[in-house]
Structures are given as C-alpha cells and as structure tokens.
Specification:
The protein is mainly α and 586 residues long. The protein has helices spanning 2-14, 30-48, 54-70, 85-90, 94-111, 113-126, 134-145, 149-158, 226-238, 259-266, 277-293, 298-304, 316-333, 339-357, 367-382, 386-401, 413-423, 425-438, 442-452, 458-470, 480-488, 491-503, 505-512, 518-527, 532-543, 553-584; strands at residues 22-24, 130-132, 164-166, 200-206, 213-218, 243-245, 254-256. The chain is 61% helix and 5% strand. It is globular, with a radius of gyration of 24 Å.
Amino acid sequence: MKRGIARTVCHELAHQWFGNLVTMDFWTQLWLNEGFARFMEFVGIDTLFPEWDAWTEFVQSVYGLALSLDSMKSSHPIEVEVRHPDEISEIFDAISYAKGASVIRMLSTYIGFETFLEGMKIYLKRHAYGNAVTEDLWAALEEASGAPVAALARPWTSQTGFPILKLPTNNGGGIEAPRFLASGPLSGINDETEQGVWPTPVTALVEGEEGVQGPWVVNGPAGDESAALLEKINEWSLAGKWFKLNASQTGFFRVSYTPEQWAKLKTVMSPSGPLSATDRLGLISDSFAAGRAGYTSIVDSLKLVQDFGSHDTAEYAVWQELSENLSNLSSLYRSEPFYGSFQKYLRSVYTNQLTKLGWEAATGESQRTGTLRGTVIQMLCVAGHMDVCKEALSRFKLFVESPEQNPIPGDLRSIVYRAAMRQDEAYVFDKLKELYEASSFPEEQRNCLTVMASVKDMKRHAEMIDYVLFSGKVRLQDVAFPLNALASTTDMGGKTCWNLMRDDFARLSQKFEGGPVWGALVGLSCRGLCTHEDAAEVEKFYNDPVHPCGSATRRLMQGLEAVRTKADRLERDRAGVAAFLAAGFA
C-alpha cells in the first residue's frame, strides 16, 4: 500500500509541471500530461526510495502493460485525433499513460538522462503558463542533445504498435523488425497492420564484456545500423557467448532469439547469475509473449522457467512476471484434458518457494517478500495444491471468528480469501458477503467483491451478477473488479456473462450506457468467451443498430480480438503442450 500511495502522490505532483505549468494543446496530446506524469512518478520514487528498485517495478507493470495492449490490432497511436467527446474517455488508457511513459524512458536513455533533463528545462520554461504540442517537446530535446530526436521519436507517437527483433538463424539473412502482434505474425504483405517502421535503439549485455554495448539504431533516421548489429551478434555467437539485447528493457520492443541463443540464456536465469532482475524478467516476458503469439513455441517458454523451482532465492518482480504468464496459460488450458498435468508443472515450480517463505513473515523481511509470498500461495491455489487451500480455509475461519486475534496480513488477505473459496465455496462466499456489507474500507470491500465473483457454482454466479449490477450495494467505481472475475474465472462463467449482455441488453444499456461502467461492461462481457464462433456471434449482435455500443466501441474491439487470439492460441498450443506435459508431468 505504501508503494501505491507514494506512486499516486508523485504522479499527481508531476502534473504541477506536466498539465498545469505546461498544458497540452488539445486532447490529441493527452500523453504530454499523462505519459510524463507516469514516467516522472518513477523518477520521484527512485530518488526518494532507491531501495525499492522502482525501475524494475516500472518494467514489470507499466512497460509490460503497454506492450500487452499495443500488441493488439485494435490498439491506437499515442497521439490520436479526437473528433467526438466519446473518444476522449477511450484514450485515457495504457497507451497514453504506459506506452507514453515507456517511450519517454527510451528517449531519455538514448540521449542520456542528464541531457534529457536539460531538454525538459528548455521545454517547461519555453511553454510555461501556456500550451504545447508534441513537436515542441522534440524541439527542446533536440536543442539539448544535438540528436535527431524528432525523426527518431515521431514514429513512436504517430504509429500504432512496436517491433519484434527477429534474429536470423544459421541459414543466414538479416535482422527483421516487423510489428509484433499478439495474434501472431501475418503473411499478407499488404496488410495495413504490418506497415510500420520504428527507429529502434538496441543495446546489449554480452558474456565476458563490461557494461552495456551499443546502441545500434535499427531503421534509424541517420541510417539503418542493423547490419552493424548483426555483425556483432555473429561475432558473439561464433565465440559461443550468450548475449541479451535491450539492456534493462529500456527499448520499447521485443526480441525473438534463435533456439541456440535461448539455450545459452537459460543458463544465466538464476538470481545468482550475471543478469539483473530487470533483464531476467524481460527475457521471461519476451519468451512467453513470442510463444503465445506463435513466433516461437510456448513449450520453449515452459522449458525456460522449468528449473525456477530449484532457485535458492526469488525476487518479487521476476516471479510476478512469471506468475502472470503462467496464470494466463492456466486460464487458457483449464478445460483441456491435460490441465491436471499443467497443474503438476505449476506445483513443481512453486512448492519449493513456499517451503522457503512459509506462511508467516520473518522478522525484518522486506515488504516485497510479503507480496512474493502472496503470489506463490496464489499460484499454488491455481495449481490445485490441496494443503495450501486447506491451510487458507483454516486461517480464514479463524479470521472470521476473531479478526483482532487472528488477523490476516494485508498482502495475503485477498489471496487467503480466494484459496479458501476453492476449498469451501458456499461457506466462504456467505462470510465474504457479510464482511463486505459490514466493512467501510474500500480496499477490503473490493477484495471481498472480487473473490465473491470468482465463484464456480453457476447459481451463485447468477446471484453475484445481480448483486453487482442491480442490488445498489456496489459502488459504480468498484463494478469492474467483480465483473472481470465473473467473466474470467471459468469458461462457463464467461459464457454466462455474455448471455446476460445479449439477453438483457435493453436494461443494461438504459442503466449504464454513457457512464463510467459501460466500457468495462461491454468489453468484459465478451472477454470470457473462447471460440471464433463466440466472437462472430458478439460481432453480429453489435453490428445490429438496435444494439449500439457507443463509447465502448474500442473496448468491444479489444474484447473480440482477445477472444479470437485465445482461440487461435489454444488450437496452436494444444498438441505441443500436451506432449511436453505427458513426457514429464503425467
């Protein structure tokens, strides 16, 4: 909680300069307010609390979120021309905030942070008490650095997406940098989603070499340096060295290595190895993203992290990245015949860490260790670890009987609730409802609501939908949290949420259309679906003028794309994952 409060305070203070002293000219330049405030909140946190390792958190949460959303065809450029009031709310998203902040971080690294600050002084003084556009920022940074900032940066704000650097195999060829798409590589050369060129500063960490190598600017404004980079890559490869591109994940792109290089990188994934936590979580992120999208095999990603269970130590950010990716796969595979074997794989990764961490906080342990403990327990719950679920239920019952004498730490509260729910859903659901209605603490109320909405029993699921949307007991700003759980916990729950939207559209639109909940309601109501047939049904429904989605259009597009991508992934992964699990986790 302390981290969250500190981030919020630093973010809002940053708006005194980015938003108040210098204001965006129009909504098109929203990112000049929000992207900078998001970036500067981490500059502030890193200055005040250097022990928090703020930039690793930035990479795991902000940067990772931006990559995820911007990998969708339905994404949008950082700068979007706004023509209608409905479009304003749509651009208050991870692109304006998180991608904007990530691009600023990339530029500040490229020209040097101190030089970047000099450029910002020029920008703020020149436009103080006035308005500015993006080109004003580029001009100030160019003046400070002497670098062609505008030519390098402009494609990053005017184009949708980002590249994936694909390294050539032994068969030769050059480095390719097409747009990365969550739906996978496209073969049609005329497809508009492939028409993007991003000047990309690439750095490297190399076995046996001191410091960061580079940068080489692939597709740079002063010339493409990919040939020079490839020459170095070939040199490192011939010497048998591992290398990791995109040092500290400062560049906004992904990397697809050759199988030979992935094998070398697997040997340096230990916390005691030469790579920082930021670089290791970057490798996990790139591997799973490429595997999910079909650029590589998802089995290779599972093999990359298979030995994590034997690591003596664990860093929160690395294991959070690992857990988000494995949890995503769990949701995809949960109705497959091999799911029990996948849960066994999860238990092999996480059980040893819980043995080391235990359920109780050690004297003097860091706050992040407590958060890591919660992540490990949560993943063992997903893995069907019965002893963990039984322990959670025992602790929950003691807490309900006497919260003062048997408190559950804040960083474990929602985790214990959820694990207990898996052990005795009826009892826990009823008790959480009592806790929710008796509490006046917003965070505790959201915890209760979200876990209550993760029910698997369809009768309670229907009861919870009505409770969230129509009882009047849930604040509008809290509705999205349980809605997400209702739509995503089970495949049947996802289908039920869509059926509600389809069959009760008139009542839902009358109550919520045009308000803050409508976008979440439209988007989440279809995100729990699993097949191309489901997506076609949703699309046909909203193409009928009788069912306008209005300001939720972009959320609908993102939801439909997510469903189709999920269906393609499952079809692509099924045989390979089943064979891998059968060989080692049957």
